[in-house]
Amino acid sequence: MNFDSRISSSGTLVDSNGDNPLFGDGSADRRSRRLLIIGGVVLVAVLIGVWFLTQRGGADVATQPKTQVPVVSVITPGSGSIAGQINATGTLAARRTLPVGVPGEGGQIVRVLVEPGQWVGQGQVLAIIDRSVQVQQQASQAAQIQVARANAELADANYQRALKLVDKGFISKADVDRLRATRDAAYAQVNVAGAQLGVLRAQSARLNVVAPASGLVLERKVEPGQVVSAGSGVLFSIAKGGEMELLAQVGEIDLAKLGAGVPAEVTPAGSDRVFTGQIWQVAPVIDPQSRQGTARIALAYAKELRPGGFASAVIKAGAVTAPLLPESAILSDEKGSFVYVVDAQNKAQRRPVKTGLVTENGIAVVEGLAGNERIVLRAGGFLNPGDTVKPQLIKTN
Predict the structure, then answer these.
(1) Against a cut of 0.90, is the pTM above it?
(2) In this structure, what is the dihedral angle of CA atoms 150, 152, 157, 161, given to the nearest 10 degrees?
(3) CATH T-level fold of 72-85+322-393
(4) To the nearest whole percent, how much of the chain has pLDDT over 90?
């Protein structure tokens, strides 16, 4: 082996370059050691960093509060007078419907003079019935009157002549009495014939179908050429004076609060116009099936109010003094309605309540609140009794 070697002071065999000839290249070994040292340093640095972050994070968690106090909106509703109202629905109708039929013996309709939707006056002719037969009967009776009058005049002349002859003894007093009776009977026949003519004329006049009162024609059930009689039923329907009403269906509890003169606002279906009226009659009975009664709301005529149509009503049923809460503040479960009240320690406490009138501005609370409490406005469903909260007061008008 041709190389110069020596024993180092440590007893290791080395060559002239200081490398161990038995283990190959010494520079590669040094590089491996350097890499190992660098890797170890990096690993230690990483471990130190992990330990530092872990210790610092633990300290931060220890200093943070375990739970975060929720912020809730609260209101103090106060207590005031709330206009009571009852919402109801019903059917529009004529307040007084006048059915018009044939008042006389009837006959064939010749002309119909009105249409539905027209206004008529009292006594106005609605339809005309053929009266050709009645006209002939009247003419015949008029002739009978003339015959009776002629007979009466003849009887009176005979009686007057008899009075002149009785004094001369040519005729007895009995004959005079008989002639006077004959004269009186003849004049009575004139009166009878005149009365019969009056009957015929009245019957003829009743052939006209006339309006019994002023109002609005609602229905027409007859046409020219139709034969009618007293048994033909209703030919026309008239709303007396054009007055309308709403037959509002109201629950028996609310019905007990109503009476004549209570104001109401009526809105027909399909219209945004509101009509003002008042209750003029409350039903004396309750439907045993629906447990409702009828409140009749009188209304003045308007073209939007059509009998048979549907309408809603808001009935002003007096006023109550109570706190008024938004719907979001009132919760309910199997135990009933309740709210969350924030006490002096800012803890949410459950408070059972009893609700009353429902208005556009909120719900009246008739029992359970004085009005000066702090009531949770929203998110009450996420709270539990005794939870600590941070109240934020919301001012109400």
Answers:
(1) no
(2) 150
(3) 2.40.420
(4) 29
